[in-house]
Amino acid sequence: MSTLHSKWKRNRKGEKNGKGLRHFSMKVCEKVQRKGTTSYNEVADELVAEFSAADNHILPNESAYDQKNIRRRVYDALNVLMAMNIISKEKKEIKWIGLPTNSAQECQNLEVERQRRLERIKQKQSQLQELILQQIAFKNLVQRNRQAEQQANRPPPPNSVIHLPFIIVNTSKKTVIDCSISNDKFEYLFNFDNTFEIHDDIEVLKRMGMAYGLESGSCSPEDLKMARSLVPKALEPYVTEMAQGSLGGVFVTSSVSTSNGTRLSASDLINGADGMLATSSSGSQYNENDEED
């Protein structure tokens, strides 16, 4: 009778452990996935608390054994998850990697990631192109202003100077414009009752030819040579590609056309330009006589 009872207890315990192991593995996996980053002690403590609350009828000596058993199972489950590359462990820190996927799903995910990175590269190319155009335009402006000062042997009259940064608003003479400026002069609100265009300083400099036609891919060999001389040597190949229209294939314009009220901040007006590029003996300026709009 005693032997039969012991055998029955062992069989029951084996079934309980088998079911418990699967259950614990799922529990551990869910907790690590939900937390993202955790530790063995954190997962084990939470599971001990959860199962202790569910089995509050267990005697104290049995409870101590169950807690030890729970922690051992958590440890085993974590090792299995690491072997399957579902989680990673560095010192005491455990991080969620992800459930394994089939080859088709993995291929699809890689293609999505590839497209995302290609789009990011395209955006970076456009940003690089615009920054190169800004540097060339500003340096060309500095040279032009310096030559004008040397020829006139004097700085330009104060009323002919427009300091950077600036914007030009173009609209019909009949348009009614309401302009509000914040107290700190950081925000400007324009309300127009008709269509209008806004051009920033770099767009104006492009129209003045300060970018040597690189923005439209119409740069002559002579102008290309001048443009290359205004950028660091490492950027010269990019200037050549821009002249050939092969850098990103996108030409950026800074003009804005709209018919609604537009709010502009000072950072919008600066448009990422480096002020040091626009420094000359008398400061960089745009002569109102050069305006073509």
What does this structure look like?
By secondary structure, this protein is an alpha+beta fold. The chain has 2 domains: 21-96, Arc Repressor Mutant, subunit A (Orthogonal Bundle); 105-154 and 162-244, Transcription factor DP (Butyryl-CoA Dehydrogenase, subunit A, domain 3). The protein has helices at residues 2-35, 40-54, 60-83, 103-152, 201-207, 221-228, 236-244, 266-270, and strands spanning 37-38, 87-90, 93-96, 161-163, 167-171, 177-181, 187-192, 196-200, 256-258, 262-265, 285-287. The strands form 4 sheets. The chain has a 3-stranded antiparallel β-sheet. It has a 3-stranded antiparallel β-sheet with strand order 5-8-9. Strand 2 and strand 3 (93-96) form a beta hairpin. The protein is elongated, with a radius of gyration of 35 Å. Residues 1-19 and 249-293 have low confidence and may be disordered.
